Input
Amino acid sequence: MVPVREVAGTKVDQVIVGSSVNSSFRDLMTVCRILDGRRVAPQLSFNINPGSRQVLENVAAQGGFMMLLLAGAQIHQPGCLGCIGMGQAPGTNQVSLRTFPRNFPGRSGTKDDRVYLCSPETAAAAGLFGVITDPRELGKLMAWPDVRNPDSYLLDDSSIIHPLPPAEAARAEIVTGPNIVPFPDFEPLPDDLSAEVIITVGDNISTDTIMPAGNKVLPFRSNIPAISRFVFEQIDPEFPERAMAKGSGVVIAGENYGQGSSREHAALAPRYLGIRAKIAKSFARIHKANLINFGILPLTFREPADYDTLKQGERMLFRGVRQLVASGTTEIPAEVNGRTIVTLLEVSERQRQELLAGGTLNFVKHGGA
Output
């Protein structure tokens, strides 16, 4: 992370404002005011991804839609789009400025991407000048646009389909194509867990590294068997086949495992492949919650040095693990080649019940609340 001035002057090929963050009314309307009466640099594409249909409606009501169109911007439907590599991929070695929260290498859909994350103001300035520009330079062209959120927003909820009465809903037909398959059944936590170390990874492994984004992978998001073939593809393409063959597996990781996007498939797909525990020095908060949701034990090393002793292919036995989880104990020992490694399970009582059930859906199905 660096101040804009340290990379100012870098030629820009693409600008994208919006997606899941920096796409509210004030964000987009500020960009509209900056571009009003001006044209974006001819060598770049300037894209707008509204945060919602309501945001787009309110920007249009304030005249912002025409400001963007006349400036040469391309306006898209609300959605993730370029943030997850579904379209809007930059050219090879091209510079793309984006107001998204993620820029892991290759996530844009281009292997050799050069993606910078920035504010909407910086994005708009780069759009006008064609290079990364400190937005304070805009003061030479205009008074700063003082955009305020309105006291009330336009709200059109005519497209919302409200739930049917229960009796009528029970008769509704759910139409699916061949790429939408039923959600897999997951077994409860066994009394004893014997599992092989399928892979060991380092620090700061992102959810993109676990479950890649992009247009090759994400079309299978409703087909868990198919999307699971891509787990850890970037660092170990043989992982899915090896995990499935072993039937029950463990992933060993360093610090901050599961950082980045809160993508449930980064937990769901490994669970489908038979991963029942992940042992790390530390977990990213949301990924840890997702592991619990799908019945994967999120264990941490009591002694971080134990991380260096575990190798791929070793078998771990968590003797009496179900009873230990149910009892509320924090320490979960694992037997490995004649030695014992102590791991820690630091979760809430409800999360323990979810782990025992094999995941949150199982817990709810069987009357949990």
Q: What stands out?
A: The radius of gyration is 24 Å. The CA atoms of residues 31 and 124 lie 6 Å apart. The first strand starts at residue 14 and ends at 18. Residues 193-365 form a domain with the Aconitase; domain 4 fold (CATH 3.20.19.10).
